[in-house]
Amino acid sequence: MLNLLRSDLYRMTRIRGLRGELWQYASVLLFIACLEVGLTWFILQSGLGPAENANLIKELATPSSFLGSTMLGSFSVLALAASFGMVEYTLPDLSEGYVKSLVSSPRGRALYLGEKILLAGIWSALMLALGCIFHLVILKVFLTMPYGFAIQGPDNPLAFALWLLGAWLATWAITVIAMIAVAIFRKKLPVYIFAFAPISGLFPLTLSALAFSSGGMLSFLQPIAPALTSIATWMPSSVLQAFSNGANTMFDTATTLPLIGAVPGWAWGAVTGVIWILIGSAAYIAIGKRRDL
């Protein structure tokens, strides 16, 4: 497994001709960082209105609130780069028959699938690190310009570290879910459509809508409405949406469980990510072991 992981990391990061996926997605993240920071500067200098300025000032309160507003949210740029990057990397292995040269036994196949799950975690961490670095560096550049803007204050270091942990685990979970689509469909269009759903928050939105409708036209769902709401809350895209506000709520109560009680925001984010990584990994390995290569 470790040899295959080293090989994959080399293929992803090969700098010759910038053909590795890392450099391609790093370029995309850099462009997005320039675009978002530039747009923020333009809005603040244009004076589009007190409401818009108040929202932007809130987003610039701390580094985590700035990063959360630009990288996370109901549509997460970070999750898009992480999941689409792994889809782009793993799909040709199956469609072009590369896996057949690596796997010769069920045990070997399980090791291959497990290595891809580990690789997804590393890739998600790289996307998170690059996204944070690019946004903060571009922000620093804008500070040197006339009428620049700045972060108002620092984050609590522990809260910021826990915020990064939760964002990484949630992104890793969404990436593994996208890889399930690769194992099932193996065609670009359905794979990318399926991978886009958890990025856009479609799953928790649908569950919340069903729970809400249980009081009306879908009254037959009323007995399971609380369960639908709970599942929607404990989904990785819900974590990214909540974490878009920054690290200031990491120690506040995020949700309450019947047997556990109040759960702080950081624990909710981390546990949600781990749960869905395990669920997604089990599904990915089960499907991958049964499908023909």
TrEMBL record:
Keywords: Membrane, Transmembrane, Transmembrane helix
Record's keyword annotation contains DNA-binding: no
UniProt-recorded name of the protein: ABC-2 type transporter domain-containing protein
Residues spanning the membrane: 21-44, 64-87, 117-138, 158-184, 191-212, 266-287
Source domain of life: Bacteria
